[in-house]
Amino acid sequence: MTTRLYYNEPDLLEFEAEVVGTLSLGDRTGIILDRTAFYPTSGGQPHDLGTLGGIALVDCYEDEESGDIIHVLRAKPDSVRVRGQVDADRRKDHRQQHSGQHVLSRAFVELYNWPTVSFHLGVATCTIDLTVESASREQLDRVEELANRIVQENRAVGIRYVNEENIAEAGLRKATERTGEIRIIDVSGYDRSACGGTHVRNTHEIGPIQILGASRAKKQTRVEFICGDRVLRHAHATRRALETISQTISSPLLETPSAVASVWQELQQAKKRIDDLDAQLLGHEAVAFPVHDGLAIAAFKDRGIDTLKLLAAKIAKRPGTVVLLADQGDQLRVVFARSADSTVDVAALLRKTIEKFGGRGGGRPDLAQAGGLTAASAEAVLQFAQETLR
Ligand SMILES: [Zn+2]
User: 115 — alpha (psi -120 to 50), left (phi > 0) or beta?
Assistant: First the structure.
């Protein structure tokens, strides 16, 4: 079994070890060391990165049966004695996120008695799942405030070991299924959890904790959060986004919410006005539309199915009229309509047109539509429909 140096020395970034086993993993090599400072993926926390014997580590995982840690490299090291170098930024980030999670999970229990059932440390954000169906922003704000207070109190974060026989007296936040000697992370006077991850030494190292939001996941609530340097990066990104909005709409930064709301309202009013004007315009077009021997027929380009249907319905208000319209846009579409006093079944006419040119569609005897027709031109389809009608 590999000795886990990170258990007691989470600050250790450089170490020397001996290669005690090698696995062939296709074009990669799995290395087992007598001891390691590399954290393997487990407990919701991803593995460390870095180099081993100067070769980049691409993965690191636990072999459940043997308890060995497998270091996956692109090539085999030259020597049996190797030097490991843990990626400092990634380790620091993971320590911040994981320790922040302990504090946050305890804060949820303290304020609302909502236990955490799972944790995931993601590339951009982290999540915990709570056994509660919903959480309001106000409740999340209170938890965030408490968690940040604990961080600022700069409490020591200790590592202790308790034998499973004495685990009941250890005062854990959450029962553990681990056996034997159990590693406990102790946020002084605040939280005790069985955990194998890498953590900070003092809560102030966590930095700020920010809850980004919560969503319902089955009968639980998934809380998304970030800690430490991620909060700063997120604040910068949020600020840049706000500045862009503020410049675009020429409004002071903190007044953008009401400014955007009024721009949005104006947009909705303008859209409605355009719709009204479009309808009026279509009305005029329908009245002036040329109708010969009771037939209104025309091919268009890029007018869209909604306009085509509206226009056909408006023309069909004229007594004794059959309307055959086609439009060539992203696909070839047709709309057939007839006035209320006509006996022509345009749905039947559409079926015959689809038989000839393919496509999908349907409708009623007085209004029918289809799209995806395959023809040389919109005019060719209309000519066929007109001949079929006669
Ligand atoms: Zn932990």
Answer: beta
